[in-house]
Amino acid sequence: MRAGALSSASWSLAGVRLIGPSKETALEEDHSPAPTTWNKEAFADEQIRGLVRQVFSTRLNPPVQQVVFSSVERETDVRSLCTWVGEVLAQEKVAEIAIIDETEVSLERSPSRTDFEAHSQYRSTPIRQLATSIHRNVWLVPPRSAGPDSCHRSSLCAYMAELRREFEYSIVAAPAPSVSSAALEMARFADGIILVLSAQHTRRVTALKVKNALGSVRLLGTVLSDREFPMPTSIYRRL
Q1: What residue ranges do the domains of the chain occupy?
Q2: What values do phi and psi take at 221, rounded to 5?
Q3: In angstroms, how far apart are the furthest CA atoms of the chain?
Q4: Which of 43, 137, 142, 197 is the most buried (most CB within 10 A)?
């Protein structure tokens, strides 16, 4: 199932912190003893599975079926993370799952004629027909081109609504807020956003600035990447 997915060399997690609907606390506490030998790849896989089970839990109200992932730093690879999340979700749910790559689309740039033609195709063709099946119930949706109205809220709302109609779950890899406003705009129409922080690059003040910019957007949690050594439980719980 995870053929072609990430290895610890390309993606490493220090942990995932999920945020509850009413206050910023972990949904579940892990009381299992820490392993004597830290296996980075096994730990990352465990964290991803924990993220999927908690974010897409039927116990959440309202439930999450459409989520946006966005990194605070433009260097952080959220596309690979979203692919990994989609593959694990496919193991957990018997449902149609879409992974949408929007990381390269900047809504602020001026569209070219090629962009306009590609955007027109998106408007006239069902998303499912443009997607590539990477597993029996997992689809990879190519990025939209920046059409003349792609930055308008009405266009984004219609796009996210169409994803809901065609797929039971949709996972959107969005550009960093410093690159484009697309992440926050799409998150307004999704069920929430998960911010990806880099242990090596993200500054606390930058992360707080992005968090404050969310406004009414539902923050589902944070993912800390790029940590090359185990983090003590006492420090991780304060993330």
Answers
A1: 65-236
A2: 165, -175
A3: 58
A4: 197
Report yes or no: 103 and 79 within 8 Å, Cβ to Cβ. Answer: yes
CA distance 140 to 108: 24
Residue 141 pLDDT grade (very low, low, confident, very high; cuts 50, 70, 90): very high
Most confident by average pLDDT, 15-29, 48-62, 145-159, 222-236: 48-62
Show the tokens assigned to 129.
């027909």
Q: Which of 4, 13, 16, 10 is nearest to 38 (CA)?
A: 13
Question: In Å, how far are 176, 188, 190, 193 from 215, measured between CA atoms?
Answer: 16, 10, 14, 12
Strands (DSSP E) found in the chain: 13-18, 66-71, 97-101, 132-135, 138-141, 169-174, 193-198, 219-225
- Assess contact for 138 and 93: CB atoms under 8 A: no
Q: Which two tokens stand for residue 110?
A: 């001026």
Lowest mean pLDDT among 50-54, 176-180, 204-208, 210-214: 176-180
Cβ atoms within 10 Å of 29's Cβ, excluding its own: 8
Shortest CA distance to 81 belongs to which of 68, 95, 63, 94? 68
- Beta pairing partners, 140: 99, 132
Fold annotation for 65-236: Rossmann fold (3.40.50)
